[in-house]
Amino acid sequence: MLILGIESATAQVGCAVGGHEGVIASTHSSRPRRHCESLAPQIQFIAEQAGIKLTEIGAVAIDVGPGLYTGLRVGVTTAVAIAHTLHVPMIGVSSLDLLAFPVAHTERVIVAAVDARRGEVFHATYRSVPGGVQRMTEPGVARPEELLSDIVAEHDEVLLVGDGALHHHEVFDKVSGVEIADSRLTFPSASSLVLLAHSKALREEFVMPSEIEPLYLRRPDAEAKWESKAG
Asked: Distance of CA 71 to CAs 19, 146, 148, Å?
């Protein structure tokens, strides 16, 4: 089964296609606030690179967040529209799962952190298990200082991964036992999305397009700014 993966929950937008043979083609871009303009050409590009037609896609995988409201909405809307058109099922994967997956080799506790703006991060904690990672906490949103307090309280060696960790590195840098992952792992990867979705597909963990629900965790920035001005 060929899986189309769409990832747009952060400042980066990307897509990939693959199946049992792994990822065949992928692309990403980080043009600020250009997710809507970038995504359709990216999908066309990877289809051409992989030498396939979109009608060959058997499932559509989507990063359901948490993440930035506009980018997340663009990705989910696009993915649902494609799945409806092709009459194929969908697979939803958390952006935090996608950040943790590439560092599954570490012996440290993994904390995935997405920059949520407004001085906050979306976060979740993971541990390595055979074949991948296991989420230990539910996704949440907090100030970096609050997240650090939780990390210190657990007395674990921690690997922080994601743009939330890098953006607020001054909060975490001075704490012994806390390491920030390589900047190449800053954003969730569409390639990781396809790989994780393929494992879910083997277990038949599909949902219908109407069942896909973005995980926003809080109100959009624009709505909060409007209420602030009104208040």
From this structure: 25, 26, 27
The architecture (CATH level 2) of 2-94+188-230 comes to: 2-Layer Sandwich (3.30)
On whether the pTM is more than 0.85, the answer is yes
Residue 112: alpha-carbon gap to chain centroid: 10
| Residue 99, H or E segment | helix 95-100
Two structure tokens written together for 105? 């080799």
pLDDT tens readout for residues 92-122: 999 999 999 999 999 999 999 999 999 999 9
Indicate the residue type of 10.
T
User: What 3-state class would DSSP assign to 216?
Assistant: coil
Residues 162-205 pLDDT 10s: 999 999 999 999 899 999 999 999 999 999 999 999 999 999 99
* In the chain, ranges of CATH 3.30.420.40 domains: 2-94+188-230, 96-185
Task: Tell me which architecture the domain covering 96-185 has in CATH.
Answer: 2-Layer Sandwich (3.30)
Query: In 3D, which of 192, 146, 187, 193 has the Cα closest to residue 11?
Result: 187
